[in-house]
Amino acid sequence: MRLFWTLAALIWACGTAGATQWRETVSPHFVIAHESPWTPPGFVIALEKLHNRLRMDLSMFSPWMAKERLRLYLYKERATYLKGEFEPPSWSNGIAMYDKKAVAVHDQPEAAKLLQIIAHETTHLLFEGFWKEAGKQPPSWLNEGLAMMEESESVGKPEKSDWYQAMAYQPRKSLLPLEKFFAINPTTDIKDDQEKVTAWYVQAYSLVYFLYRRHSRLQFKTFCGHLRDGRPLKESLWLSYRFATLAKLESAWREWLDSPEHKKRVEALAQTGARAKVVPSAIPIMDGFRSLRE
User: In what helix (H) or strand (E) does residue 257 lie, and over which residues does it extend?
Assistant: First the structure.
């Protein structure tokens, strides 16, 4: 019998070798599983503030987020994150798992960057859930554009976002006609051209920002609902925004994009001595993004 328990203990040890040993911290809206003994200083409070901001924008897609806790897995470092149970892509800083209503990330040297990654992945979790209720996936440009928009720490100060700054200075020649832009999936169609991928992501951000922040939440929700229900893009735009054609949308979007307001906001931020502290995450195109800003 003693030999049996010894063997059982050895089998259990082998089965759990390398497995992450999680500690849990529970807040009003999160169950945080963390690899380190403690969460980073001030992290739980910052996480709750993030939830409040996301709820303003995204609860219309996931009403359950007001009552159910989201699960967050916080790895101590990138190495354990990549070797962890969720098998994330090697280039990623975080992943969203709708079936678990969970997000997995690894800690970052800067708290602001960690929160940006969590905001990005949580947006995917909440927005994709709306589409998966109908057994569908959102269009890539809509999904990524919204996640990048929600990375910003302040709705009233979008110029603090690296994406907004990139949008303000993006060469207009890099913008694709919307007919072509909507048809592209960056992970399959242009994945080998880093410059084009970067430009595509910035364009996705700017277009979603225009449709969401420059119009009402109800219009954006209605637009997404029509798309999810299977209506064509052009019909959904007309029913939600009264853009009769893609050309009408493109004209209005480019006119807004060319407004001097964007560069003025970024330049005013620079004059205060404030600088962007983080680089947008969760996409494997960092070098291209940096070169775009330079």
Answer: helix 246-257
pLDDT in tens, 55-104: 999 999 999 999 999 999 999 999 999 999 999 999 899 999 999 999 99
Of the candidates 142, 138, 93, the residue with the CA atom closest to the CA atom of residue 117: 93
* Strand (E) or helix (H) holding 290: helix 286-293
Q: Percent of the chain having pLDDT more than 90?
A: 78
Q: Report which of 284, 246, 276 is spatially closest to residue 112, judged by C-alpha positions.
A: 276
Name the average pLDDT for the chain: 87
Q: Do the beta carbons of residue 25 and residue 39 sit within 8 Å?
A: yes
Q: For the chain, first and last CA: distance in Å?
A: 70
In which residue are the tokens 């980073």 written? 40
Q: Which residues of 141-155 are buried (b: 16+ CB within 10 A; e: fewer)?
A: bbbbbbbbbbbbbee
What's the CA gap between 270 and 293, in Å, rounded? 14
Four-CA torsion 128, 34, 282, 135, nearest 10 degrees: -20
Beta-strand ranges (E) seen in 54-109 are: 70-75, 94-97, 102-106
* Residue matched to tokens 């992945």: 121
The rounded distance, in Å, linking the Cα atoms of 124 and 117 is 11
Which residue has better confidence, 271 or 175?
A: 175
